[in-house]
Design goal:
heterodimer, A: about 290 residues, alpha/beta, Globin-like, Transcription Regulator spoIIAA, 5-stranded mixed sheet, 11 helices, 5 strands, B: about 130 residues, 4 helices
């Protein structure tokens, strides 16, 4: 006759938890700096209780059963939080695999018939393997979310539009310009032009590592769009190597005002706005002013 | 039938497009505007498209046409108040409207037209001077 595996697990849940904790703590790869012993215990206890409570003879062979929804929810939560905390995949995998080991050890103690033991172990193994796969899926999903968020943040951070003077905007571009970033840069720039009513925009490309024909095309697009809005666009920060590349590639930037440095671009902008930067009359006066 | 009003302001013509242009309307505008330039012998045309949110290649071409036609009749064209989305669309469509002058708003557009007129006058003056000498 078949042994009732679920009742064994229910009766032995404390032993299982202890065994599981022992297994987890004995793992040399455990990142005890990322999670405290207490948190680990409460996480483990939650999971064992949820699993044992929801397990019965009917659903043990069917890991997709809706009885496991709560278990999967807990497991997903643990897995995602571990991904965010920076656990390695090995540690996360060991979490669930060590539970399987504990289960099998308990079954080994409780079931004497070898044939029976094998059948039951296999059933339980299958179920636990399924949970393991699920853990990994959620773990990777969590990691991907982290990466996506960072990508978004980088895009936001790397395209600031700075108002350097009344009517003059500067936009230092740092990093490679691809189509998606050009779109963001262009939208930010044009939006800012509308808001501030600026008539000159300086695109500084000193932070762009390489300029190929595609990047140049993106730059040309940004300049054209700015011009259509009714503002002028100056490209500054062209390094000698980049000037060489541009000429060797045969890219025509003759329609665009280009300057070597942001300073000379700013000078040009001042000139076209008929502004002048003057040193104040004498040092003496300046000194007197600063004293007050 | 809808018509876009063309207002005369001194030596300039002011057109404010308040609705999204459809093809027929744009063609009518082109025709009316050229007639008006001829009739008033205007020196400049200011087209305000700040309310236009949708643009297609046809509309882009019409704007270019208006500028070219006006230039033939000795009038400068300035397009003002283009929305960022419209500017991006035109560039993506490959219509950078190279022959058209642009400005941020009507005020700046007017200033631009005025400065262009002064520039033209100065040039004429110079020509006269050289002719006199």
């Amino acid at each position: 006759m078949l042994v009732n595996i679920t009742s064994i697990l229910k009766n032995k849940r404390t032993e299982i938890l202890e065994l599981w904790m022992k297994n987890q703590l004995s793992n040399p790869g455990l990142a005890d700096d990322l999670i405290s012993n207490q948190d680990l215990r409460s996480q483990s206890a939650d999971f064992v209780n949820a699993l044992v409570n929801n397990l019965n003879e009917n659903n043990i062979d069917n890991p997709n059963s809706s009885d496991f929804d709560h278990v999967i929810e807990i497991l997903g939560g643990i897995s995602i939080s571990r991904a965010r905390q920076g656990f390695s995949p090995r540690e996360t995998g060991f979490f669930i695999l060590s539970l399987k080991e504990s289960f099998l050890e308990i079954l080994n103690q409780e079931i004497s018939d070898v044939k029976d033991l094998f059948t039951q172990s296999l059933r339980l193994s299958r179920l636990m393997d399924n949970f393991t796969i699920l853990t990994f899926e959620t773990f990777i999903k969590g990691r991907e979310e982290v990466i996506m968020r960072q990508t978004d943040e980088i895009t936001d951070i790397s395209t600031p539009v700075i108002k350097v003077w009344d009517g003059i905007l500067a936009l230092p571009i740092i990093g490679t310009l691809d189509s998606a970033r050009t779109q963001v840069v262009m939208e930010n720039l044009l939006q800012e032009i509308v808001i501030t009513g600026s008539s000159i925009a300086i695109l500084d490309i000193s932070g762009v590592p390489t300029v190929d024909s595609l990047v140049a095309q993106h730059l040309l697009k940004a300049v054209s769009a700015t011009r259509l809005m009714g503002a002028e666009c100056i490209i500054s920060g062209i390094r000698p190597e980049i000037a060489q590349t541009i000429v060797h590639l045969g890219i025509d930037l003759s329609q665009i005002i280009t300057k070597a440095t942001l300073a000379s671009a700013l000078q040009y902008a001042f000139k076209s706005l008929r502004l002048e930067v003057k040193r104040s009359a004498t040092d003496n006066k300046l000194f007197n002013k600063t004293q007050y | 039938m809808d018509r876009i009003p063309i207002l005369k302001m001194g030596p300039f013509l002011l057109v404010t497009i308040q609705i999204d242009l459809y093809d027929r309307l744009a063609l009518d505008l082109e025709e009316d505007l050229v007639r008006m330039v001829e009739k008033t012998s205007a020196k400049g045309v200011l087209i305000d498209i700040s309310a236009v949110t949708i643009v297609d290649s046809f509309m882009g071409r019409i704007l270019g046409n208006i500028a070219s036609m006006s230039r033939l009749l000795d009038a400068q064209t300035v397009v003002v108040g283009m929305q960022p989305a419209v500017a991006i669309t035109l560039v993506e469509l490959g219509l950078p409207l190279n022959g058209v002058s642009t400005a941020l708003d009507v005020e700046k557009g007017m200033a631009l037209l005025q400065s262009k007129m002064i520039f033209d006058e100065e040039e004429e003056q110079e020509e006269d001077d050289t002719a006199a000498n």
